[in-house]
């Protein structure tokens, strides 16, 4: 794909995805949704990438949906009258202009095998805020603002945020945030649990890179991918036995893969040399992902 709303920068195994519409404060469009979805799907097969950082060009992270577009600004087909039954198969092409575009992005982030970090450099409002909730960490600049403003527009939180938000901040705080629909400064976003850390603007990206390295350098890509998906999926499982089944398979296959090298490196008191690739996951992985994806 040729990217027109994003800029990709790769350095030392870290992909930095820059939302690149600075003249529009990186406002979100259907095209940007397509490009972000493609990015997070394709990175799974790119073994040169260890982690992903998402940030914005210029003074904003993402100011929300671009409300200047013609027709339905969310890219939806107003001639349709979809039902819950119509939504059963999300891959149905007929749902292309019914599905929430932000949800397509966050589902791709959720399924990603690489850690994803938001470096929120400026205003993150609407989808600019909710897309980050599916990421593994949100680092926020002292100049940034964070707004779940849907109530003021007469719409609802999207991008699967009603699934992600309560898991991050707890239900009482989640309800308060969406009811108030206020734009929060960095300190309040941190206090409410929306951000892991607040940094000065000139150190934000370097701190995000340091975190990405701490998570992925000298780590097995398969182990990292499994740990990410196990935490995201097993935490929502109905019973711990469901986690046990996956734990058992993941332990079995990592123990005969990179785990064998990790143990030997520990014994030899040397850095490990892992060789397994996240593009080639253990044989149970795809079946598990399919059975835990409605």
Describe the structure.
There is one protein chain. This protein is of the alpha/beta class and 294 residues long. The longest helix has 16 residues, at 240-255. The radius of gyration is 20 Å and the shape is globular. The strands form two sheets. It has a six-stranded mixed sheet, sandwiched between helices. It has a four-stranded mixed sheet with strand order 4-6-8-9. It is 40% helix and 15% strand. Helix 1 (30-42) runs parallel beside helix 2 and helix 9 runs antiparallel to helix 10 (240-255).
Structure characteristics:
single chain, 294 residues, alpha/beta, four-stranded mixed sheet, 12 helices, 10 strands, 40% helix
Quick overview:
This protein has 294 residues and is α/β, with parallel strands linked by helices. Helix content is 40%, strand content 15%.
Low-confidence stretches at least 5 residues in length (pLDDT < 50)? none
The fraction of residues in strands falls at 5-15%
Would you list the SSEs in sequence order as H and E?
A: EEHEEHEEHEEHHHEHEHHHHH
- Percent helix range: 25-40%
**Order of strands side by side in the largest beta sheet?**
1-2-3-5-7-10
How far the N terminus sits from the C terminus, by CA atoms, comes to 28 Å
Q: What's the mean pLDDT score? A: 96
Number of strands: 10
Largest beta-sheet characterization: 6 strands, mixed
Whole-angstrom Rg? 20 Å
What structural class results from the helix and strand content? alpha/beta
Coarse morphology: globular
Helical element count?
A: 12
